[in-house]
Amino acid sequence: MRRRPAGPPRLAAWLLQVSLPAGPVADTVLGDLHEMYERMAGDDRVGPGRAARWYWGHAVRIGVGYVGRRLRRESVPSLGVEGSPGTGMGGRTMKELSMKDLWNDIRLALRGLRRNAGFTLAATVILGLGIGANTTVFTLVSTLFLEPPPLIVEPDRLVRINRTTDGTGFGALAYPDYLYYEENNELFDGILAYDPSGLALTLGFGDGNAPGRGWLVSHNYFDVLGVRPAAGRWFLEEEDRTPGTHSVTVISHSLWQSAFGGSPDAVGATVTLNGNPFTIVGVAPEGFRGASPAEAPPDLWTPIHTQPILAPVGGDFPLRRVQGNVWVWLYGMGRLEDGATVEAAQTHMDGLASYLEATFPEWNEGWGIALSPSYRFHPPDGTSLATVTRLLIAVVGLVLIIACANVAVLLLARGSARSRDVAVRAALGAGRSRILRELLTESLLLALFGSALGLAVTYWSADAVAALLPLGFTVTFEPDWRVMAFATLLAGTTAVVFGLVPAWQVARVDCHTVLKGSENTPRSLRGRNLLVIAQVALALMVVTAAGLFARSLATARGIDLGFETEDRMLLSVNLTNHGYTEDEGRAFIADALDRVRNVPGVRSAATTRLVPFQGRWSTGVHPPGSDANEGAQRDLGLNAVSPGYFETMGIRLLSGRGFTSQDVVGQGFNAAVINRSTADAFWPGQDPLGRTFGAEEDREGWTVVGVAEDVHLYGLEEETPLFAYLPVLDRYASGVVFIVDTGGDPGVPGGVREAIHGIDPTLAFTRSSSLTQVVDGVLARYRVTATTVGLFGLLALALASVGLYGVLSYAVTRRSREIGIRVALGASGGQVGRSVLRQGMALAAVGSAVGLVGSVAGTRLLSGFLYGVGPRDPLTMAAVPLVLLAVAASASLLPAWRATRVHPTEVLKSE
Amino acid sequence: MNERPYLGELEQMLLWVIQRLDGEAYGPRILDELDERVHRSVSPGALYATLDRLESKGMIRSRVADPEPGRGGRPKRFVHVTAEGQHALNRVRSEWLRLWEGVELPLEPGR
Q1: Which residues of chain A have a CB within 8 Å of the CB of B64?
Q2: What contacts A587, CB < 8 A, 6 or more positions away?
Q3: Does ipTM come in above 0.90?
């Protein structure tokens, strides 16, 4: 028993029907196909499946054929009516289009463009800016996300391997865990580990010291990345198995050049790192910069097991497992075996992770392993970078649409000016497709010019835009072949977008009407108006976004941080890395502060363990009065600071005192300065001075000696934490940051460095910056969006006003006859000008209204980028349309003025 | 100015088939006939394009019949050759015959 075929595919039949000319022809064609389909479907050798495919194929071909013939204006008979003879290019098909035709089109288009140099220039500049904005952003995308890292073999097989609690988080690995994964995995050719924070080092080459940066890496680091040494060799496995026994290093190519002049003798030579002698075993190849564009390449690499020498944190503690303590500090990256998938590797690693979790629950409970194929960036960094990039792409996309609409308006205006020309040619037998093709060729050429200009813009601006991004690293942005390809693609797309509608409109010109001289194309005017409205609307959206970002930046800038940032230099050292014991460290801090304070120009100086917005240190305390062993602990932020800290930072003391050199171990009590929030929380309405708090079983409490004003120490968005300052001479911390009020004296920073090196010339400064830079870094994300989007907003505004201006001046030219008559009938210049102005403002108002609706709908997407401002901030929403209307008014003024100058006799005479 | 409109090969064949089918010529039937007689498999798209062209040249005329079952309830478009078409067909035929006069080719073996 055979199933009766259910008839031909309905969608195909419908598609065919709509592409056929209305009338009985369509019915007969559909009937024929239906009949043939039924016959095939009923045939056992064919069957319904193949019949359906056959039907689809022929339905599409017939449909396309009819549409094509209608476009070429070939007669398609509706039955019973005599078909009209074909015109122009007649039955020529695309196949017959020769290169000669193409060349002819190009020559014609070039000639046309040259004849209208002003128009060509304007369109090129507009498109160049629009395309340039896009290629610039694309250059960033290409450099950050598309370009493979140099020298690394098959980077696509690299995956990042880190710890996670929820499968999405991405935390660093502990060394013993890394070792377990590296030794027991089966799907990786190798897993490497490195310490991303890097080491500040003082490099010694016999005759002198130089600052440098080093990375601790696993011995297989270079092998897993697939890089070959420029000289010497990479690390051996035994050089990375025992703590502090193998002092070997691989130096970068640039260090090889600068310190050894590229001599092969460098291999085997000795370099001192923070005073410890290391043997150079190899040199990295030129241009090697690791797998991530976000990580600045160091000057040298040493095995992880040199950590007790270069970064001692209580001996070789990070390399060992210590009860109750896990030091997670390494980023992992693995090279998948050929053919292994990330999914398979993830499953496999999950198994290893659950073994660790079951075997060592005290360290691994709740922790799994996460693989990420984005080898370029540590996932959270990559995500935030990608978010900013996406925002930029959206904004420049809008700018490009505005530019296209703009050029479309220009083309429309030009199109109606040449409709006579087109009409003559059509009357002489040029086919519609022929004319269409010519016009599109012209658009394509314009777009190519625009792309070329855009690339030039990118070439000059990419570095500047990159500097605006919160990259925290420097990359040279050079437009590469990807950018070229992208620009070409953009050129093609934009040409079609801005060229098709005007071309269609021109090609539809009715020769009779045009040649008779009665020009009335209300439709083309309407099209232009719509395009202007669209431009204004889009510009309003971009400017609204820019306004919101500007407001958010202003809000963030205007925040009272609670401390001074001007002229505060920061200089960091890590004393443990240089072999200082706690006592030596205390003595060093006291000595160094004395010397720094005596540097000429220094107003005040202090040390701190933490710099605002960077790093946290906290402990749990029970609020005073509650039982020490019951109730919830509250998180208390801590910092260890030296005498003079509050003065140097400009933090106001509300009561009591800051620290003195008397606040040291053994004075009988542990002094603390608390912030206002802590005073309010622990002793509301009472004087906290002299009270103690924070005593726990294993810890003595602190005695309040002073209360300081609340300051912003963490993120801008965070509420003020409970916070206590402890004297550094009491609560020693080996990471010391000097804060110096330089009073703006440019000689001070050098003097401070000298003063400190006067105590110990080998000390490496882990950081040298200023509080202004730190705060700038915090504001960076707001500043970046505000400046880039602001820049593109200005561009959008300028383009939209040019568009409006163009349409109005064109309208004035077109209406000059009407205006002349009105003036002749007694209308005053003012009335005429006002009517033009009214037209412009009407367009701008409609555009603004549409844009406002779009903004209200769209700005919600921006909320993650804003600070202290809602995405529908009423002030911005009210101000931006006003700005836009003001710009529109000024763009309308010139055309309006020209309208007042229309002289009736001249206009009427010229007709 | 063109008194003798050019007739392409497919146009000639179609005119011939339509004439031969004598009032019964419509889409699938024409395609079948072409297939049977000269082993030419022509796609429906090409057929319609050529029919439309012939019609616009005045060589054929169409008639839409009543809707029929088995075709999704749709009508057939029957075509017939006009006097002008017959004239053109005759002319082509006599031109061919004149061209062949006195020309002899060795017969191809097989078909």
Answers
A1: 24, 27-28, 79
A2: none
A3: no
